[in-house]
Design brief:
This protein is of the alpha+beta class. It has 10 helices and 7 strands. It has a 7-stranded mixed β-sheet, with helices on both faces. Helix 6 packs antiparallel against helix 10. The protein is elongated. It starts with a helix and ends with a helix. About 3% of the residues have low confidence.
């Protein structure tokens, strides 16, 4: 009997612990997306619902709130679909999930082809020298077809240094958007990316950096940003910046990450 009671208490402890973890990560997501007031409002509503239906046992009001909660669950998913997607991606991208990801993706031991990397690096450094702003997205395992087809101009061209520089030239109609490179080809340009609302991004970084951070948070793509104001080259990978990169730094990062 005592063993059963011990297991029961252990199960309750695990139950409370898991609920606390879920609430904590939900709070972090809402805080990063500046929806913390909505999160607090939902918690208050849930507490009122539990008190009315479970503690006070008010049938009429309890039934009404039950219907609101059942419909509100769908509304919650629609309202916070971006945050939920980000949470699930972060969960799947965790290091402990890598063995499962490798099983589905298949292992790739090849190193990145320098003939594919060098035109991108050279173009970025030339644009940095001339202070030409640029945002280049390099697709990896997560497809970006939706961004290319809905917001950009399809190109599907070989990777060429001069072509990259011409697309981002200040007189070009596509220079304000992002270029997406997929399967060693320039697939699209002028693409509109999701913007990160993280408060950890330094204030001196502009909209290009926030867009690069946004796509790196929602996918495993690599974002290369050339600042128009400072002429500095940065990279965003998995929601983290690497700033003020040299030619050798950028080449090393792309060779390693695209391998």
């Amino acid at each position: 009997m005592s063993i059963i009671l011990d297991l029961f208490h252990l199960k309750d402890f695990i139950d409370v612990l898991l609920m606390a973890v879920i609430l904590y990560y939900t709070y972090r997501l809402m805080k990063e997306s500046r929806s913390i007031n909505v999160f607090v409002g939902i918690l208050v509503f849930i507490i009122i619902w539990l008190v009315v239906s479970q503690v006070l046992e008010m049938r009429l009001l309890g039934n009404i709130l039950d219907k609101v909660v059942s419909v509100g669950a769908i509304g919650f998913v629609v309202l916070f679909q971006a945050e939920i997607r980000k949470f699930l991606y972060n969960l799947g991208a965790h290091r402990q999930m890598e063995p499962f990801l490798e099983f589905f993706r298949g292992k790739n031991e090849k190193k990145a082809d320098r003939r594919f990397i060098m035109p991108i690096v050279s173009a970025c450094m030339n644009m940095a020298r001339d202070k030409v702003g640029a945002l280049i997205i390099m697709e990896r395992s997560i497809p970006l077809d939706d961004l290319m087809q809905t917001s950009g101009e399809l190109i599907d061209a070989n990777i060429n240094q001069r072509l990259i520089e011409n697309i981002f030239y200040k007189g070009s109609p596509l220079h304000d958007g992002a270029m997406i490179i997929s399967k060693k080809r320039i697939r699209a340009a002028g693409c509109v990316l999701p913007v990160s609302h993280s408060r950890d991004i330094p204030k001196e970084l502009g909209l290009r950096h926030r867009a690069g951070m946004g796509i790196s948070e929602e996918s495993d793509a690599i974002a290369i940003i050339v600042s128009e104001e400072t002429g500095k080259v940065s990279v965003a990978i998995n929601g983290k910046f690497q700033l003020r990169l040299s030619f050798e730094d950028l080449e090393s990062i792309l060779t390693k990450e695209m391998g």
